[in-house]
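quick one before i forget lol
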Amino acid sequence: MDEFIVEGIEEVEIPTGDGTFAYPPMFKMRPVETVAHIPGQLAAVSDRQIVSFRPIERSDMLCNDKDLDASPLRPENKLVIRFCRHLHRHGHPTLRVQIRHTPDHGPMFTDIWVDSAYLLIEAKVEPTRDNVRMALSQMDDYQRFLENPKRAVLLRKRPSDELIELAHSRHAAVIWPSRNSWLSSIGWLENLGIRQDLGVRKLPR
């Protein structure tokens, strides 16, 4: 079976028969190869025997928020799914990168790859020093097989300024949810519908 990713999510208005309307989501699908093979992006500069693409699990992406809250998925996976839905609504399909780094060993998988932004994202739940350090180290490892991607750490809530400074010193932004939107520590992510937190003090990039 061919692999697809969710390219976008739109609400459609459907009469229910009792004078009211339902607004179920309509998911636009796109073949994964049409996203991966864009000239000048990842597929053009990486060894395809080592680096390949995998879609985010479709069944998880398609469930509603109530079912997602009740699902047995790890909190990190739920955070990833909610963020990917946000990106899809803003026209940015998401993938995972599979890296076959060593013969006879299992591959590594990134949490999120945003091909339209050439962005590598590693997700952790709690904004602790250990989690931020681990995310940065994992991206260092992945980046050995990629061609200078942009980088970001996805967290459940805003970390301290000191940890944001740590991420910036390693050339990574930080992203976290805020009510019904998403915030980041750096302005260039606004192209993905992610607002910069103006409360972040001026930090070195």
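fyi DSSP finds seven helices and 13 strands in the chain.
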